[in-house]
Design brief:
225 residues; alpha+beta; five-stranded antiparallel beta sheet; 4 helices; 10 strands; globular
Length: 225
């Protein structure tokens, strides 16, 4: 009986440790290039036959050295994400990256990545960045200059803002998932389809329903391309 209880304890501990460290599925072979046309649905993508894979499965002419357009964005930023949808060889490797361009006074508004931690490096300009913890919501913020690095823990709300009125900024971010996901807070709360009840939001934000109705009537833009 004691040995059975001990074995059960060990199994539960192992299961808990796997849940703690788990992010994307770990690779069990050298690579698993995504077969995005397979009808089979799994957590991630089915692997292509390794014999049918070539170097193009790990490559994209992404032109990440070229500035992106930020003028048409209402928030003044443009996020160019390179994930498994662009490079199928990222499947099971647990990594992706993004180039982020910021107009003067532009921002990447508060958002979360539900499946990834992010590490960001400023290539040009200055950024005011930060993240907010889970309740009771402490803010960790910093002004970054060229060459500086900042980490945003997985799932926490974070942002970047270019405080300079006459110069753009550029950053590169690495993320610990082949498909990190992004939930822009304002878009999710006020721009969901169908909309969240204005009764719910008026109570949550402690404002009049007319204010919520006005916010929900706005066009909530996605700055991820």
């Amino acid at each position: 009986m004691a040995s059975s209880s001990f074995l059960l304890t060990i199994l539960l501990a192992l299961a808990a440790s796997q849940a703690i460290v788990a992010s994307d599925p770990s690779p069990l072979q050298d690579f698993c290039v995504a077969d995005k046309h397979s009808p089979v649905r799994v957590n991630g993508f089915v692997c292509k036959d390794p014999m049918a894979v070539n170097a193009d499965g790990f490559f994209k002419a992404a032109n990440l050295d070229k500035p992106r357009d930020t003028k048409t964005s209402k928030v003044g930023s443009n996020v160019t994400l390179i994930n498994v949808m662009q490079i199928p060889g990222l499947n099971t490797l647990g990594i992706s990256l993004a180039r982020i361009d910021y107009a003067p006074m532009g921002e990447n508004p508060p958002h979360t990545h539900p499946r990834a931690t992010e590490i960001l490096t400023v290539l040009e300009g200055t950024l005011y960045v930060g993240f907010v913890t889970s309740n009771p919501n402490k803010l960790f913020a910093k002004v970054l200059n060229k060459g500086d690095v900042f980490v945003f823990p997985q799932g926490l709300i974070h942002f970047q803002f270019n405080p300079v009125y006459d110069k753009p900024a550029v950053a590169i971010a690495a993320l610990s998932s082949q498909n990190p996901g992004a939930i822009t807070i304002a878009n999710a709360v006020f721009g969901s389809k169908p909309p969240i009840s204005d009764d719910v939001l008026a109570k949550a934000f402690q404002v009049e329903k007319g204010t919520i109705d006005w916010l929900q009537a706005q066009f909530w833009e996605n700055n991820h391309y």
